[in-house]
Specification:
The protein is mainly alpha-helical and 181 residues long. The chain has a domain of 109 residues. Helix content is 81%, strand content 7%. Belongs to the UPF0337 (CsbD) family.
Length: 181
């Protein structure tokens, strides 16, 4: 994916601001073509922003406009431990086994912590890959090393996808907790 095709949150903000200024200047000067071009730039920026944040979560992976990344193994294992723990807690409650119920609670809590650890790992690794990829691509571009530039851009894109996947799950869990209140 070339940097021209890459959807970027920062780029969408810059394009939106540029479009707003161009549209406002067109409005002040009465130049309808500037107004139209400015509005078109703002509309394109909105689409780029939405694409930059679009995330598809699957079991063990995240896909976005930037690419696909594999989730940290702690995320799936933690989710599994939560499910098994909840089942044990439910069965323990149904049959009156306080020990099974307590073991289920503990496994559920351990699973929540394990999943959170995986989310933090994916988020921080993704952020690091984005920074390294951006800097590496810029330096490679300046030196004319197009192969390295492409590799660094792929690192950036994978990092962005990993970060978006963690954000998606964290927000989903926060929404679920807010619904329970």
């Amino acid at each position: 994916m070339s940097s021209n095709d890459n959807t970027s949150t920062l780029k969408s903000y810059v394009d939106s601001a540029t479009g707003a200024v161009q549209s406002a200047l067109g409005s002040l000067t009465g130049n309808t073509s500037d107004q139209t071009a400015g509005q078109a730039k703002q509309d394109k920026a909105d689409v780029e922003h939405d694409a930059s944040h679009a995330t598809l979560k699957g079991p063990g992976f995240t896909a976005s406009a930037a690419g696909v990344s594999k989730d940290d193994p702690d995320r799936a294992a933690g989710s599994w431990n939560q499910t098994v723990g909840s089942a044990k807690e439910t069965v323990g409650g149904l049959i009156g086994s306080e020990g099974l119920k307590q073991a289920g609670r503990e496994q559920n809590l351990d699973g929540q912590q394990q999943e959170a650890k995986g989310q933090v790992s994916d988020y921080t690794k993704g952020a690091g890959d984005r920074i390294t990829g951006t800097v590496g691509a810029a330096v490679s571009g300046l030196t004319g090393n197009t192969a390295a530039q492409k590799e660094y851009q792929n690192q950036h894109d994978t990092g962005k996808t990993s970060q978006r996947g963690a954000e998606h799950d964290i927000l989903k869990q926060a929404d679920a907790k807010n619904e329970l209140k």
